[in-house]
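Standup notes
- HV: blocked on the assembly model, inputs below
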Amino acid sequence: MPRTIIGVMGPGEGASQEDREVARELGKLIAKKGWVLLTGGRAHGVMHAALEGAKLAGGLTLGILPAAHRDDISSAVDVPVLTGMGEARNVVNVLTSDVVLVCGMSAGTASEVALAIKTHRPVVLVGATDTSVRFFESFGRPFGRARDAADAIRLVEDLLSRKE
Amino acid sequence: MPRTIIGVMGPGEGASQEDREVARELGKLIAKKGWVLLTGGRAHGVMHAALEGAKLAGGLTLGILPAAHRDDISSAVDVPVLTGMGEARNVVNVLTSDVVLVCGMSAGTASEVALAIKTHRPVVLVGATDTSVRFFESFGRPFGRARDAADAIRLVEDLLSRKE
Amino acid sequence: MPRTIIGVMGPGEGASQEDREVARELGKLIAKKGWVLLTGGRAHGVMHAALEGAKLAGGLTLGILPAAHRDDISSAVDVPVLTGMGEARNVVNVLTSDVVLVCGMSAGTASEVALAIKTHRPVVLVGATDTSVRFFESFGRPFGRARDAADAIRLVEDLLSRKE
Amino acid sequence: MPRTIIGVMGPGEGASQEDREVARELGKLIAKKGWVLLTGGRAHGVMHAALEGAKLAGGLTLGILPAAHRDDISSAVDVPVLTGMGEARNVVNVLTSDVVLVCGMSAGTASEVALAIKTHRPVVLVGATDTSVRFFESFGRPFGRARDAADAIRLVEDLLSRKE
């Protein structure tokens, strides 16, 4: 049976130390729950940190990559999906995730949150700024907010239980 | 020689009366300048209004559609491009536009603004709320702001002259 | 109202002199009929020859490009659509064409013919080899065959009249 | 470290009994080798048979789906990737596979073989007809041919050893 897939989205090269720490913790907790971790798969920032966390906890990791070749893949990706579609792979990230967790914010991340809201995927912002929260609230669709990784995972469990 | 293409992005079904009026005016002015108008091509909201404005002024209109069939196309589209890729067509909208004009805000529109910032396409927000401006400013990349359609077109001319 | 769009597909860098001559003639005749010419938009082979033919006859030309930037675009493209999706743009070529005309054969072209058959777009092979004809016949779906450009255009007219 | 991913492509609804049997055997052998099996992920034909074979042998299975929702997924897919891009997902199938194994032929399958040749992915046709072989040979690029599943797996091992 298809497994539950949880996406972790956030800045690549520009991720803060704090974003990466939260991402690593999210990856660990996702793996411990037995869920598959999805990220954008590159060897940078939130993607890479979440993937490393999941591997430390023995999880299965999926990376949806913008490139057509196995360049710039995080070594913590088990299953690299090469789209060759650049930023259009952000749509695949979102559609494939049962829940989208967001850790930090960048232009690429913002496109993923917006696409998740548009395509009705459940979104949880972890440690988001007021500016981000106010912006995404303006679309009138519900999304979750979490203080930290553990709080985010509780919200994911709640969202998944409502789907069944 | 490839013509200049100006994109107008904004809400579809949920567009306000005011958004549609600004969009129609943008379409007219884009056509009068001899630029090709690009929109998402559907028969709704900002897309449809901008396309109608451009056709009133005798312009050429391009619609980049999410569907694989000629359903739900605005009758004011001259050249419908059928992507069959759903929301991934938002990336094509942005990459194809020499300048992206934004009129109103929705989740789909937000994904386009974010993708334009990410892929370094010039963006002009027309009549944007403070919430939107503050959010997009947080990415640290420049974008334009215009009060109305005429103001937006002046900014486009300025942006195009710098490209040459 | 959306205009009729006729696609011309064929080899890029590896196109033969004969393929390019037929493509140029197809471009001219498509333009004379008032149809929009669609190609893959690059400055090579069948794409470039068909686009040049259409411009000589005063037609409107659409190029669906694999890249995210205005590099390697044929100067005979009026409206360049930048997909940034590499070979996935072949799907857009096919879906957007009311009829797909094929002139010469390469791996990329073969993918377009196969996708056109799969997505039920009318296909006409111009001057195809027996090997190609036999292969595509094996899918049990009808497609047209033309000896030369004039013959191909007659088939397109016939196919379009049946759609109305 | 990213795992080796072997794609099995072939007809969906129209697959023959023989194609499905070979596909099931390919899935089993791929799983026994410790490779990840990739298919188009739907609950039909060669995709479904290969996935079932891999699960019988305890393998990990990846399905790259055309839809944006978890409809029509084979129950033997562990990791469903939802592209929402229709036939454009065929490009992802091919790019993601270290080797593309082909079992039976349909228009969709032909597009995948052509795209694999175009993007320089190694291809092995299993039990192909002379018509198919002659057609794909016309592109002047090498591809493998196998009599049966065991023969195909030997060719995959050989191709993988040359990559290292």
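- HV (later): unblocked. Chain C touches chain B at residues 1-3, 5, 36, 60, 62-64, 68, 70, 73, 75, 77-85, 88, 91-92, 95-96, 119 (CB under 8 Å). Residues 65 and 82 of chain C are 5 Å apart (CA to CA).
- Next: hand off to the docking folks.
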